[in-house]
Design brief:
single chain, mainly alpha, binds protoporphyrin IX containing FE, membrane, transmembrane helix, Cytochrome B, transmembrane
């Protein structure tokens, strides 16, 4: 069970980062070139949202079955364990909240510029936060 979830979370992370990167770049291009916000732009942002939410669910399960998750919570002196048991989950949940707020906000906005700007800021911030707390040494 643990190994399956751990491999799934590890592999799905590629999809999350690629989808988020595409969504952020697409939003910045849309904003700077003053393009109209179309169904294609909405779909790109939606796929990134779904990929991120799926990773949240897998991550939550992993947190309870991994020896590096809840089981290591409290071992704050160990940098690697502090990352996987506290910093990575906490910062990623904050990032996913920001991405979700960005998605909800865009629905209420009416201009293409404001939609692209919202995705650039909220998805961009979310991506930076996620990248700041990846356990790179475990991943590669
Ligand atoms: C978009 C969000 C996330 C991304 C991109 C992500 C990515 C990753 C990556 C690349 C690893 C290293 C995997 C490996 O060992 O090969 C990892 C480990 C881990 N993640 Fe996440 N994660 C995310 C969210 C979360 C959340 C929300 C939680 C918990 C609530 C979580 C819990 C964990 C745990 C406990 C580990 C250590 C697992 C182990 O090796 O036993 N992750 N994550």
């Amino acid at each position: 069970m643990y190994h399956f979830i751990q491999k799934f979370h590890s592999g799905w992370a590629y999809l999350v980062l690629i989808m988020l990167l595409i969504a952020v770049i697409n939003a910045i291009i849309g904003l700077t070139s003053k393009k109209e916000f179309t169904a294609k732009d909405r779909k790109i942002a939606l796929f990134a949202l779904i990929a991120t939410h799926t990773q949240l669910l897998i991550g939550l399960i992993l947190y309870f079955v991994s020896p590096l998750g809840l089981a290591s919570f409290g071992q704050m002196a160990d940098k690697a364990l502090r990352l996987t048991s506290l910093e990575h989950p906490l910062i990623n949940i904050i990032a996913i909240v920001l991405i979700t707020i960005g998605w909800s906000k865009h629905k209420k906005l009416t201009t293409s510029e404001s939609k692209f700007k919202t995705f650039s800021v909220f998805y961009g911030l979310g991506l930076v936060l996620i990248l700041s707390r990846i356990p790179w040494s475990l991943w590669f």
